User: Which sequence fits this backbone?
């Protein structure tokens, strides 16, 4: 949605057996790119005990469809692995679509008509 702030978050790890050192990848959306560098060291665990790190970034919606891309930068045996990918928004700045505005106006008109009709009934009694 135009002007809406989105936050992309994810976990990443690496193939510790035979992947390039460092294994490089990018995560991008809405013109913003997060560069992932996963060195072949103990911080990513071992072949039997993979350890994960987290990353996140924010971007502002442009009003046109946005593609989320996860891409390897270096080739090799496995490289970077991703998990727990999510895209969230705080909801602030959301602008209703024209059809939603029309529906709200009709709803307010209906409430007004109901209140007016009740006033007439009370006066007639």
Assistant:
């Amino acid at each position: 949605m135009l002007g809406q702030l989105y936050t992309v978050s994810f976990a990443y790890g690496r193939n510790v057996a035979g992947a390039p050192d460092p294994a490089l990848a990018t995560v991008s959306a809405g013109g913003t790119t997060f560069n992932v560098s996963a060195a072949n060291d103990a911080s990513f665990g071992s072949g039997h005990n993979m350890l994960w790190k987290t990353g996140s970034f924010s971007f502002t919606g442009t009003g046109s469809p946005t593609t989320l891309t996860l891409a390897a930068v270096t080739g090799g045996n496995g490289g970077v692995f991703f998990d727990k990918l999510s895209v969230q928004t705080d909801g602030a700045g959301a602008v209703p679509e024209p059809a939603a505005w029309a529906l709200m106006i009709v709803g307010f008109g209906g409430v007004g008509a109901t209140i007016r009709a009740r006033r007439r009934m009370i006066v007639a009694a």
In short: The longest helix spans residues 98-124. Strands lie at 5-14, 23-29, 32-38, 45-46, 49-50, 53-60, 69-72, 80-89.
